[in-house]
Amino acid sequence: MWRRYQSLLPALAYGAWLRIKEKFARTLIGSGWIALSALLTMAVLGSIYGTITGVEDWSAYWIYVAIGLVSWNTLASCITASCTLFERARERVLNQPMPLGVFVIEEWVSISLSMLIALFAVLLVMGLTQPELWWYFLNAGWLGMVNLLLGCLWLSLFISPLAVTLADLQQLTPILLQIGFLASPILFYRQSLGALAWVTRLNPLYAWVRMARDPFLGHPHWGWQWIALIVQLGLAMFLLWRIDRRRMSVIRWL
Amino acid sequence: MPLWVLSMHRSGSSFLARWLFSNGIELPPNLLPAAADNPEGFQESADLIAINEAILASQGLLWDGTWHLSNSVESPSTALGVQREARRLIKSWCCSKAASNRASLTPLLGLKDPRLCLTMPALVDALGAEWFQWGLAIARHPFPVVRSIGYRDNMHAIKALALWLRHNLQMLQLAGTGGLTEHWPLISFERLMVNASVELAPALTTWRDAGLKVSERPSTSQRLREMHALPKYLEGVDTNLQDLALRFHSALQQAATLGSVDKSIQAEVKQVLDGNAQLTQQLLAIEAFRRHHLGMALAEERRGKVVQQRKLGETDLALLEEQLPLASQSSGPAYVELKGVCVDLRGRDRRRSLKSLLFRQPSSAGMRPLALDHLDLRIDHGERIALLGHNGSGKSTLLRLLGGIYEHTAGNLLRDGDPMAPIIDQSIGYSLELTGEQLARYYHRLNRYRKQSWQDYFAEIEAFTELGKALYTPTKTWSLGMRTRLSFALITFREVRGLALDEGLAAGDQWFQRKAKAHLDAFIDAAGTLVLASHSTDLLQRYCSRGVILERGSILYDGSLYRALQLYKAMA
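Predict the joint structure of the above. Result:
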């Protein structure tokens, strides 16, 4: 199975890049829109929520919001895309003899590329005033991002076959994601909720946001990061193997 | 000596041939078996049909083409080969008959096929005029012919009537002033049905007097068919065209020989068929509609929306054909062997919902049949298999199974090597926003990454498609023909071992089709083993030798392609 994936890797990576090209075809700045939208969202939402919650240390808050938004957006788009992934790829799934994991990985690579574009835009712009950001990224920030992306991969491998059989999932997911976004400390600090701070523990996806963001705030959590990396790697491998073992139980619903 | 029997389709030539046979005229070998539309047999040799089909194909004409053969596009190299084969076949038949009849009388060999009306000039070129001394023609009233062919081939009445006019006109072409077939008797179908002995007596006497072998006592054992009342008019056909056909039929009825048919009516028919713009446009519109309809049906089938619940009765099938145990004749490892294989796609029409999970609603899935139901099939290396079956019979499912897209849910599937390369859908599969060059680059990475450099690959694609700078523009700005050219090239510029192909491959405009044909032949040859699902008899005959008929996920027939096509036609 791994050899098959290896032989498909060049096409898979190029296919993912084509998806981004296709998405921004004929636009003036192409994939620059990913960077621009990340910076714009960060500037607008950060200013509003920072003012509402009475932020004192704005330089730390900008990092907090920027990396939080990049992480959450990556997770959210990955989960949303997973709910319709096989339906969208139906023609190819039914006409090309590729392992099902290829379609998931292609989508995941495409989302990962978008995330990297957004991240580097943030690092470039904010790095002008806060050069320590680059240090944080090179120190443990990359590991947090790898964990975030690995989380996206195994969540995609888990959700996409489930969403094919369970039609309600694609309706339910955007609602849960919206509630999760607004109820989690992404745009505001946890302390701002006061007695309601326990609510933030209800969103399991927030764990990935923390893993990706904390190293940029000076909390690398080395131990946890490496454990998460190994566990998630195993989980992704297992689900990749499983999705191809259960090929017909996915295809029969398409 | 050959005795040529000319007629339009559905004009009683099978009955005439049977009657001639009962009067001492011999028939060629390898006759078509009886079918639902002709239960007493066609009396046509499959070999002669194949020759005639090849002549038509070499000139770009179909059996139901309403245009003149000279308006077709000839392929000289192919035509020469076909003529050589025709000469060999006819001469071998006649020589063997002469050798087996040592009596002083020369035996006559009745050669009948409605296509002869169109192919006679080519056969005269191939054999020489001395082989066309004897023959006869039969003409039938146009209205029942139109109705019958419309029922059998789902042909529009205008087209069927034009076909009747064209065949009967072509039938007379070699009988021009002092022509080769001038003296051939012209038989009336209607009179033949009333009293065959009387109608054929002059012809039999002529042949007997010429020293040809004909029974002294004509047989009267042939059962005469009941004549149905003639339709008064044809619905949806211009009355002027109907009047012309009736006058032409009347002229044919009045003539005793091919050379004595009124020349003025022939000229009138020729003028209408070749020079009437309205009729030509109507025929083109009918053809365009037919193709559109076929395309829609195929698209529906590919989307899996059409499921026809029909099945040929087991008894009917047993009567029509016995299975040929071709598979068991082979030895050595099979390329693919299916033993009791099932593919279960039940439930795909109804996805689960929270409601059904929470309230445990009963599923209707159990009522639906399996997509493939306990299939036993052996495909040897290098075999060319035609897959026939109605929409929803399981053809695409089987192709997907052979191509590794589907997996079997029960039974055993053994493979000697990798799965076949499936080509189910010709679409490129990506957004039209992408350029041809980007798509080519993706396909290169998918299929040829380790075998050929990108520069060489792209140079080949560029040269073959001749799309030039258009390759660097988004495919959405291209015409359909340009997109088809690219998809054809991207699909076929690779090496595959074993091919599971659905409905052949489109290649774009006619000019490009010629170029693509040779490339497709080479691609299929290189693939070795082929399983081709199609409704096109021409396509299947071109590439396949074995035929498999599927019906509701089960194999109804597995044997020679020729017999499979006959059976499938009877099922329609």
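The first helix of chain A runs from residue 2 to 23.
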